[in-house]
Design a protein that fits this description.
Distance between the termini: 60 Å
CATH architecture of the largest domain: Orthogonal Bundle
Keywords: Chromophore, FAD, Flavoprotein, Lyase
Pfam families: DNA_photolyase, FAD_binding_7
Helix content: 40-55%
Organism: Novosphingobium piscinae
Structural class: mainly alpha
Number of domains: 3
GO biological process, one term: response to stress
Order of helices and strands: EHEHHEHEHEHHHHHHHHHHHHHHHH
Strand content: 5-15%
Bound molecules: flavin-adenine dinucleotide
Strand order of the largest sheet: 3-2-1-4-5
Radius of gyration: 23 Å
Shape: globular
GO molecular function: deoxyribodipyrimidine photo-lyase activity; DNA binding; FAD binding
CATH topology of the largest domain: DNA Cyclobutane Dipyrimidine Photolyase, subunit A, domain 3
């Protein structure tokens, strides 16, 4: 009888332990179930759905080259897999572990119908296996990373299967187009198409481009005008590439590669947090934040809309928010600046920002997004504090964001470096700052003072 490979955020053939194990057992049925019900309000956002469409198409083409194909179904994962079992007699399911609370629920349901074999391989080390001396999970990054490093390097990547035996007959599969994952009217995905190549081949070419730059990561990573980061996050999120593949491609190259590997460590750390606190995307890590008087009402909604559309009057914030809208991605330094600005200068609940990112990022990831938003807010279980308020104008200057702003805020394109970060005379159509830096800062600190001792 055939075995099923149940795919989720692991849309690759190489270093994919589920394919590796299933291929040795005989005929394989690769299945992707679009399961919006299990995720409920965490169903994939618009930008991620665009990515998913192209990634599935790419994986199907790669599978066909091996004599196989991808079976697409929509509905509840366990019900769809059970239906395939009735159609084909398959009794074993191979899959990679996923740690979002909804995927863990789905795994429990699938395990009721099948011999479910879960494999590792989407993280440097299995999340949950890195524990402190006392056996508990880590709350803070630095000791977590120290312990994780003891477990590295990760295992050498597994090769992609050379051939996947097809089942005696293929179960029914939905036409991908029927899922309507792509935007129609209006088609906002032009910028995404220009910037990305979803799928395993796209991930490998991004990695190849980064490898030559990796040794100078430290010097370049905070400069949004330069773009010295790997831009692998959506590929990693969808599992088109594994962290072990990246690790073994760059470790030992010298320079500041270690700093880059530490960022992969942050990715593992975020999963470690979600495993301890599954509702971290909606619940403050520090309970005193439950009482924080976030702004609400019409004025706050208008400010939120200005932030979302890149019209706050702060050039670096607006450049970042427009980059996000156009490409589905934003430079990490700028993500930190726009998050701090929303939470502190505008005193808007971090969860509103998290939701916007969830819908607009191609790399929207439950763990990484929640952990980074709570880090920015200072509301998390990590060590960061609310009172660290980023000054957007000096950050913009310090990290040489002039060219970045000129690219994403064309209204300001003619301004020289000396004026672009905080233009005195604003070109027509470019707004005045929606709040002054000192004023925003004072309001944020007063709001925090009200809950500080709680
Ligand atoms: P590189 O700098 O080249 O890093 C390599 C990889 O390490 C990344 O692809 C990513 O997987 C991981 N990584 C890097 N920085 C972090 C970090 N701070 N936390 C966790 N992992 C990290 N990243 C996401 O993948 N999905 C998100 O939804 C997400 N939301 C964020 C929200 C906010 C408010 C902030 C401040 C950061 C967020 N990040 C998120 C983290 C980070 O900004 C991106 O991972 C990074 O910009 C991706 O670009 P890159 O691949 O070029 O990164």
């Amino acid at each position: 009888t055939p075995t099923i490979v149940w795919l989720r955020r692991d849309l690759r053939l190489a270093d994919q332990a589920a394919f590796h194990a299933a291929a040795r057992q005989g005929p394989v049925i690769p299945v992707y179930v679009l399961d919006d019900e299990v995720a409920q309000h965490r169903r994939m956002g618009g930008a991620a759905r665009w990515w998913l469409h192209h990634s599935l198409r790419s994986l199907d083409a790669d599978l066909r080259a091996l004599g196989s194909r991808l079976v697409l179904r929509r509905g509840r994962s366990h019900e769809e897999l059970a239906a395939i079992r009735r159609e084909t007699g398959a009794r074993t399911v191979h899959a990679l572990h996923h740690y979002e609370p909804w995927w863990r629920n789905a795994e429990r349901a699938v395990a009721q119908h099948f011999d479910l074999r879960l494999h590792h391989g989407n993280y440097l080390a299995p999340p949950g296996s890195i524990t402190s001396g006392g056996g508990g999970p880590y709350k803070i990054f630095t000791p977590f990373w120290r312990a994780l490093q003891q477990r590295l390097p990760p295992p050498m990547p597994l090769p992609a299967p050379q051939h996947l035996a097809p089942p005696a007959f293929w179960p029914a599969s939905d036409p991908l187009g029927r899922w309507r994952l792509l935007p129609s009217a209006p088609d906002w995905a032009g910028g995404l198409r220009d910037h990305w190549q979803p799928g395993e081949a796209g991930a490998q070419s991004r990695l190849a481009r980064f490898v030559v730059q990796a040794p100078s990561y430290e010097q370049r990573r905070n400069l949004p005008s330069v773009g010295g980061t790997a831009m692998l996050s959506p590929h990693l999120h969808f599992g088109e590439i594994s962290p072990a593949q990246i690790w073994h491609a760059v470790a030992g190259l010298g320079g500041s590669v270690e700093t880059f590997l530490g960022e992969l460590g942050w990715r593992d750390y975020a999963q470690n947090v979600i495993l301890q606190l599954p509702d971290y995307g909606s619940r403050n890590g520090k309970t005193q934040f439950d009482a924080l008087p976030w702004r609400s009402g019409d004025a706050a909604e208008a400010d939120l809309a200005a932030w979302q559309s890149g019209r706050t009057g702060y050039p670096i914030v607006d450049a970042g928010m427009r980059e996000l809208w156009h490409t589905g991605w934003m430079h990490n330094r700028v993500r930190m600046i726009v998050a701090s600005f929303l939470i502190k200068h505008l005193l808007i609940d971090w969860r509103r920002g998290e939701q916007w990112f969830w819908d607009t990022l191609v790399d929207a990831d439950y763990a990484q997004n929640s952990v980074n938003w709570q880090w920015s807010a200072g509301s998390g279980i990590d060590a960061n504090m609310f009172v660290r308020i980023m000054a957007p104008l000096s950050q913009s200057e310090m990290f040489g964001a002039g060219d970045y702003i000129r690219r994403w805020v064309p209204e300001l394109a003619s301004l020289p470096d000396s004026q672009i970060h905080d233009p005195v005379r604003r070109p027509d159509g470019y707004p005045r700052p929606i709040i002054g830096h000192a004023e925003g800062r004072a309001r944020a600190l007063a709001a925090f003072a009200a809950v500080k001792g709680k």
